[in-house]
Design goal:
about 5% strand; 6 strands; mainly alpha
């Protein structure tokens, strides 16, 4: 007799709940942390396994960071030889993988960074469990599962982006400082934790938020301990960044700090921000902003209310998680720009705060078993929603790298607005001396002094126009993505030169142009 699908699904969920209750009831904190890391890794690999994700053109930033790592292995430095508007931490981390490009090709090397990033994100989830190891099993379970299934965190782990690595070093630093509910007093641990936060700052300057919270904690106890934390951070940051700072001091400061602060992008709607920061498995429109605000407000209430109901003073770890999550949330409401992967930096601290508040709810409630059931149901719903989300994520329909490989010979000087195209086509190397070096076309626009993106074609500086004109003069082939208008300042002189000297020879997802041959 054929079983009804809904009956089968119900039985499966019931069995899953029974198994879950048995596992959680017997699991150790270490086992829960490990289980959360495994869940996180599986979810991210499921997303990466979709057609077109592992070897497809799915991002823009990943090629900037990995392309920079490859160029470093060939003696070319960011800030001195080409533009990069982020600190050099992730490119430096990827240098060992970049050497793989010489042996297996840039495509295989970039694909390997995507798997590595999935593993790093899973380690982030495991580190959350380790930081909470002295807390209740409920607190650990909620925190690691929320972090494992947080949609923005999953999206940011699909390729080489900064946030999973930023989280990793911030969590390493936090793990060194928190023992039970107290802050570490060992100067060695404080120095090493500071070094971890310094490495995080060399990846993205956002690391200053959790670092500043910890500095305040230590300063209130002992200014000497706060100084040790700052010395460790400064030393690590200097070791990573000093070679690049010495090679191009003014450009390093301008591109990493000043150009970022001076950005004037079109402001991203509040609904988009609330969707990714609230953990929504899909981005809702502006008309549903009330629903997103309700979601975020409910999450905030779940975290804050138990501390108001149970007046016991929160410990340093609870205060650190809540204050850091709140500061990150507020900081992401301020600037004009916002991207989906930003939520991955918020996710670990939000997950810790939520887990710790769940433990406090259970201690406050007269019916802790009911609190456990509600928490387990909510987490199960999040897991199922995430599985649905991952299972139906969009995939690219074509692979443009096949066309590029067939039309562009190896060793040719190729100019593109998206370095991911040439990396996946194995046409990123070799780097000819006469060939222009543009790894980040959008960042090049920011560093030119223009106040707006090239897509607006407003206030394009003469220096930027001259830069692209020189690049077109040197290029043999040009490969343009559909988003090229947001990265290349198509002024009239540039358009006129391009149309006169290049002809389209193929188009499938991207357009490939060859330099016109002189008429005989």
């Amino acid at each position: 007799m054929r079983t009804e699908p809904r009956v089968l699904a119900g039985v499966t969920l019931w069995r899953f709940g029974a198994v879950r209750r048995g596992i959680v009831g017997a699991a150790t904190p270490r086992g829960i942390a490990l289980g959360g890391a495994v869940v996180a890794l599986c979810l991210r690999l499921i997303g990466l396994s979709h057609p077109g994700h592992f070897g497809g053109i799915t991002e823009y930033d990943d090629a900037v960071y990995f392309g920079t790592a490859i160029l470093i292995t060939h003696g070319l430095l960011p800030y001195r030889d080409f533009v990069m508007v982020q600190p050099p931490g992730v490119p430096v981390l990827m240098i060992p993988v970049a050497y793989l490009a010489d042996l297996a090709g840039t495509r295989a090397a970039l694909e390997s960074t995507r798997v590595i990033t999935c593993v790093v994100a899973a380690l982030d989830v495991g580190l959350i469990g380790y930081i909470l190891r002295r807390q209740s099993r409920l607190a650990i379970s909620v925190a690691v599962l929320v972090a494992a299934v947080f949609p923005a965190f999953i999206l940011a782990s699909q390729t080489l982006l900064l946030e999973p690595y930023l989280d990793f070093f911030c969590l390493i630093g936090a793990a060194m400082l928190f023992s039970e509910q107290s802050l570490a007093a060992s100067r060695t641990r404080i120095l090493l934790a500071g070094a971890a936060f310094g490495a995080a700052g060399a990846i993205k300057l956002w690391a200053v938020i959790p670092f500043a919270v910890l500095v305040v904690f230590y300063w209130r106890r002992s200014w000497r301990e706060a100084l040790y934390l700052a010395l460790g951070a400064g030393a690590a940051f200097a070791i990573i960044c000093l070679p690049f700072l010495v090679a191009a001091p003014s450009r390093f400061v301008r591109e990493v700090i000043l150009d970022q602060l001076g950005r004037s992008d079109i402001r991203v709607p509040i609904a988009t921000r609330l969707g990714y920061l609230g953990g929504s498995p899909s981005t809702l429109g502006a008309s549903e902003i009330w629903l997103l605000a309700l979601l975020v407000g409910a999450e905030g209430a779940l975290i804050v209310l138990p501390y108001l109901l149970n007046r016991r003073q929160p410990g340093p770890l609870e205060t650190f998680a809540i204050v850091t999550a709140a500061l990150i949330f507020v900081s992401m409401m301020i600037p004009a720009d916002f991207y989906y992967h930003y939520g991955a930096f918020y996710a670990p601290f939000f997950a810790m705060a939520l887990g710790l508040s769940a433990d406090r709810w259970m201690k406050w409630s007269a019916r802790p078993a009911l609190v456990k059931r509600i928490g387990a149901t909510a987490v199960t719903a999040m897991v199922l929603a995430c599985l649905f989300y991952v299972g139906f994520s969009s995939t690219p329909e074509v692979d443009p790298s096949v066309l590029v490989r067939s039309l562009v010979p190896k060793g040719a000087c190729v100019l593109t607005d998206t370095a991911e195209i040439t990396l996946l086509s194995n046409r990123f190397l070799p780097i000819a001396k006469a060939c222009p070096i543009i790894v980040d076309a959008f960042g090049t626009d920011l560093a030119s002094g223009a106040e707006v993106a090239a897509s607006a074609n407003v206030d394009v500086s003469p220096r930027l126009e001259a830069f692209w004109m020189a690049a077109f003069h040197q290029a043999q082939y040009v490969v343009l993505s559909d988003n090229n208008v947001s990265r290349i300042p198509w002024t009239r002189p540039l358009v006129s030169y391009f149309e006169a000297h290049f002809q389209e020879i193929g188009s499938t997802g991207v357009a490939v142009f060859d330099r016109r041959r002189p008429k005989s």
